[in-house]
Amino acid sequence: MKVLIPLMTILAVAFADHEFRLWNNCPFTVWPGLLNNPNKPLPENGGFALEKYHTRAFHVPDGWAGRIWARTNCNGAGHCETGDCGNRIECRGAGGVPPVSLAEFTFDGSGNMDYYDVSLVDGYNLPISIFPIDGTYRRVSNSHYDCNTAGCKADINAHCPNELAIRNSAGWPVACKSACLAFNTDEYCCRGAHNRPETCRSRDWPVNYPAIFKQSCPDAYSYAYDDTSSTFTCHGNGGARTGYVVKFCP
């Protein structure tokens, strides 16, 4: 016996969901990793392979929050050279081992407004960008941070300082640590006496490593309190929810 679902019910479900399109523009396969925030559903079991120049789409519910990253050079056993999540293709709730470039989202945080950013706070492995899907959003201001592209298009690995670089067996840099990850000090990690925006400042850092990331990628987080030049917002278009493209190697 067939059960007919009313069209309005289908439309209501569609409007309540947000679409993600993960676009691999790299000339090699990547393995996206997905991680939900607490009490939010985990999409796609947390990860999959995405061949070069391919796109994969999926949906998350209204109110979802979490992060997306790319893993590189994964082998048949599921171990990845960067961004590994426990030697498995489906991360199943495990995060990626830093350094890794992160796309972060909080949907419908206030008045149907989304928040999104690209974070290099724990380091960098691949260029990545986020932008809203045409027709799913509306701008409410002329701000650079209203429904525009967030991300990092530069190859930071190419000029990563030796003391921050992660190298593969052939000696090539495949990722770049943040200063916090590399040195684990209160100054670089914005903790202890430096746990506020007004006390976590470049003048307190022995070397201004975050500036290396910020100069290459001005629209991405370079350290914990880099909010004012890194957080983007966007509103849904009418009754529909926003959708976003996460592009690797933009």
TrEMBL record:
<dbReference type="InterPro" id="IPR037176">
    <property type="entry name" value="Osmotin/thaumatin-like_sf"/>
</dbReference>
<protein>
    <recommendedName>
        <fullName>Pathogenesis-related protein 5</fullName>
    </recommendedName>
</protein>
<dbReference type="Pfam" id="PF00314">
    <property type="entry name" value="Thaumatin"/>
</dbReference>
<feature type="disulfide bond">
    <location>
        <begin position="152"/>
        <end position="217"/>
    </location>
</feature>
<feature type="disulfide bond">
    <location>
        <begin position="180"/>
        <end position="189"/>
    </location>
</feature>
<feature type="signal peptide">
    <location>
        <begin position="1"/>
        <end position="16"/>
    </location>
</feature>
<keyword id="KW-1015">Disulfide bond</keyword>
<feature type="disulfide bond">
    <location>
        <begin position="74"/>
        <end position="80"/>
    </location>
</feature>
<keyword id="KW-0732">Signal</keyword>
<feature type="disulfide bond">
    <location>
        <begin position="85"/>
        <end position="91"/>
    </location>
</feature>
<feature type="disulfide bond">
    <location>
        <begin position="160"/>
        <end position="176"/>
    </location>
</feature>
<feature type="disulfide bond">
    <location>
        <begin position="147"/>
        <end position="234"/>
    </location>
</feature>
<feature type="disulfide bond">
    <location>
        <begin position="26"/>
        <end position="249"/>
    </location>
</feature>
<feature type="disulfide bond">
    <location>
        <begin position="190"/>
        <end position="200"/>
    </location>
</feature>
<dbReference type="InterPro" id="IPR001938">
    <property type="entry name" value="Thaumatin"/>
</dbReference>
